[in-house]
């Protein structure tokens, strides 16, 4: 009997435990999953309040990476999937003191259609012409990492970086584009450049995928993590229990020390934030602990605000907006959740979710007491959107050290970690091969598959 212990019950840990548990039906395997919090799901938290559906962490998963969709169907949630209402979509960027819609047909960072792009006031004529030259810009090196900022600057120019790419991509990754690793975050852009010689040509060749861009469930993303947890036998689940220490027997097996119990394990999946995994590796593999410690995290917070529709300006459109760093606002971005998905708010209300993150401009803001933070956000929203109304609902979720940073050289850190891992210990989760939910699922599956390879 191979005793598997998964540490961490977020999306990655649940995916790993689910895969192992499925295999346990026909292989000599036992599975346990240990989660420090009383509930499983980690960053995935969906709550209902006053008729609003609130998401503390992820509010959806992207359609173009199928792991989430496939897992949802596999656990019987196929008929619960709801797609984003893209016809009402579109995003804006705060520029020149107002929200400017991203030109129609924009594909990540390049214009899909020239006419709306040239008509848009988002970039100056000089900036637009620089973007239009992109197909003639020579390819960069095929090998080696570079920062996403450097790549975009090289291909599309400084203005496109500052006014479009930086606010959108830096928000999505809660990161500084000049520190973000191109290869670890957008390897596809490098492939496009190398294969097509141009991002504009590459996006045209790929075409626009059919179907919604994002998916979720009526009860929020936690429907998936709840279902995964339900599918695991009760005896296998240890929630509200923290792994304090990991030690190794002479025979190579492991001991996972909880506060009140020691679990014996032949294989361990660390589906934890890198800093938590690093603490557990201190005794067993100090070099690995050191490597994991180099993976940086930033803190962030989301503030969900419910408004009466009649209190809102009439011209608020789209899924939301992004705010460039140089605008020096507390608010980095915001999503109109009640536009993005159906039934996120009572019919006469709208739900806005505001993102706040730690960066040079907002230093210290996340540590402010709730009321002061609410005031700062209220001031920003008034300037950004003209919304002055008092919300009827307010819910703040803080995520200290909540978002891993994939910085230039990330791949080398992972390679080093792989060589330092003690036998039968596997890493999974958002710190390593992708932050999005589909990536976390795949990393959990990969860890489970690596264990299963050794079990006949
Ligand atoms: C605000 C926010 C918005 C996001 N939006 C999106 C989105 O829209 N779409 C998307 O795809 N992704 C989004 N993400 C990213 C995605 O939600 C996360 O990357 C993913 O949920 C992380 O899953 P995980 O299993 O790797 O880690 P986590 O969810 O962090 O799970 C790790 C678990 O380990 C537990 N743990 C820690 N230490 C111990 C210990 N010693 N013993 C036992 N347990 C321990 C923790 O309690 C936690 O539950 C968002 C993230 C945030 C924070």
What's this entry about, in short?
This protein is an alpha/beta fold and 456 residues long.
Overview of this protein structure:
The chain is an alpha/beta fold and about 450 residues long. It folds into 3 domains: about 160 residues, FAD/NAD(P)-binding domain (3-Layer(bba) Sandwich), CATH 3.50.50; about 150 residues, Alpha-Beta Complex (Polyamine Oxidase, Chain A, domain 2); about 100 residues, protoporphyrinogen ix oxidase, domain 3, CATH 1.10.3110. Helices cover about 35% and strands about 20% of the residues. The protein is built from 16 helices and 20 strands. Strands 8-7-16-17-18-15-19 form a 7-stranded mixed β-sheet. Helix 1 packs parallel to helix 16, helix 2 crosses helix 16 and helix 8 crosses helix 9. The longest helix has 17 residues. The radius of gyration is 23 Å and the shape is globular. The N and C termini lie close together (about 10 Å). The relative contact order is 0.20. The model has no long low-confidence stretch (mean pLDDT about 95). It binds flavin-adenine dinucleotide (FAD). The site of flavin-adenine dinucleotide has 36 residues, from helix 1, strand 2, strand 15, strand 19 and helix 16.
